């Protein structure tokens, strides 16, 4: 069984191209969830498909971003009220049994909850198929202490538990709500702040899920496919 899983993982990853994962009509389907406050977390078994997870402050536009990435409007539930996503939601993307998995996380910060943070922590420390963590920053706001804490923490966790210093996952910044960015200088400030706290964080991709057509999404799709090839 394990051998079959390894073989199928090799198949999944060898053929990854942007057009094979995200064709004009992208196949994306709900593949399970992991819930906070469980005595033992039950993780969806997705046969080792590569995964990426999207985190960020509550209401920063994570779920809207994933709708844009999959070309949907309501696949990922969104709300103008912070705290809409309350569990880790797994979505398989790509034809047949899927090529990769997108994971939508609850938000952190003043409007987040400790148990959501614990679930995220368990995910990033144990999920071996995790390839890249995407951290979203609302283009209207400066980083706050929660963002700084998350960036520092991810910088440590990237290498945690690996003897030879092998990186367990990479971290990519994404500026959301780019339609509301006050200025280019503000973006440069955000970029600098991110690097101050996470020097290895990949430079921000600027996006807007609200613009028609959405902005920066092709770059993000390419980035996701590249992350999942590794
Ligand atoms: N202006 C603008 N608003 C956006 C954009 N993307 C999302 N929003 C709005 O931001 C709000 C929050 O969006 P969500 O996608 O639910 O944010 P989230 O980070 O998933 O929120 P939680 O799950 O509550 O943490 C909604 O009112 C969205 O319409 C964008 O690109 N531009
Ligand atoms: Mg959400």
Automatic annotation (TrEMBL):
<dbReference type="InterPro" id="IPR030393">
    <property type="entry name" value="G_ENGB_dom"/>
</dbReference>
<feature type="domain" description="EngB-type G">
    <location>
        <begin position="48"/>
        <end position="230"/>
    </location>
</feature>
<dbReference type="GO" id="GO:0016787">
    <property type="term" value="F:hydrolase activity"/>
</dbReference>
<keyword id="KW-0460">Magnesium</keyword>
<dbReference type="GO" id="GO:0046872">
    <property type="term" value="F:metal ion binding"/>
</dbReference>
<dbReference type="InterPro" id="IPR052279">
    <property type="entry name" value="EngB_GTPase"/>
</dbReference>
<dbReference type="GO" id="GO:0005739">
    <property type="term" value="C:mitochondrion"/>
</dbReference>
<dbReference type="InterPro" id="IPR027417">
    <property type="entry name" value="P-loop_NTPase"/>
</dbReference>
<keyword id="KW-0547">Nucleotide-binding</keyword>
<dbReference type="Pfam" id="PF01926">
    <property type="entry name" value="MMR_HSR1"/>
</dbReference>
<dbReference type="GO" id="GO:0005525">
    <property type="term" value="F:GTP binding"/>
</dbReference>
<dbReference type="InterPro" id="IPR006073">
    <property type="entry name" value="GTP-bd"/>
</dbReference>
<keyword id="KW-0378">Hydrolase</keyword>
<protein>
    <submittedName>
        <fullName>p-loop containing nucleoside triphosphate hydrolase protein</fullName>
    </submittedName>
</protein>
<keyword id="KW-0342">GTP-binding</keyword>
<keyword id="KW-0479">Metal-binding</keyword>
């Amino acid at each position: 069984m394990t051998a079959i899983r390894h073989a199928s993982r090799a198949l999944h990853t060898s053929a990854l191209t942007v057009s094979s994962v995200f064709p004009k009509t992208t196949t994306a389907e709900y593949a399970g969830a992991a819930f906070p406050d469980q005595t033992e977390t039950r993780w969806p078994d997705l046969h080792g498909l590569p995964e990426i997870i999207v985190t960020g402050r509550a209401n920063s536009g994570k779920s809207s971003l994933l709708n844009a990435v999959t070309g949907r409007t309501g696949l990922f539930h969104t709300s103008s009220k912070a705290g809409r996503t309350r569990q880790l939601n797994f979505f398989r993307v790509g034809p047949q049994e899927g090529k990769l998995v997108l994971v939508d996380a609850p938000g952190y910060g003043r409007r987040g909850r400790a148990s959501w943070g614990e679930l995220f922590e368990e995910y990033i420390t144990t999920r071996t198929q995790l390839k890249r963590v995407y951290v979203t920053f609302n283009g209207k706001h400066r980083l706050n202490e929660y963002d700084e804490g998350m960036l520092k923490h991810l910088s440590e966790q990237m290498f945690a538990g690996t003897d030879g210093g092998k990186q367990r996952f990479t971290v990519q910044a994404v500026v959301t709500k780019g339609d509301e960015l006050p200025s280019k200088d503000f973006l440069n400030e955000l970029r600098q702040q991110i690097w101050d706290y996470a020097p290895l964080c990949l430079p921000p991709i600027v996006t807007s899920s609200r613009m028609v057509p959405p902005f920066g999404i092709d770059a993000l799709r390419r980035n996701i496919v590249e992350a999942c090839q590794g």
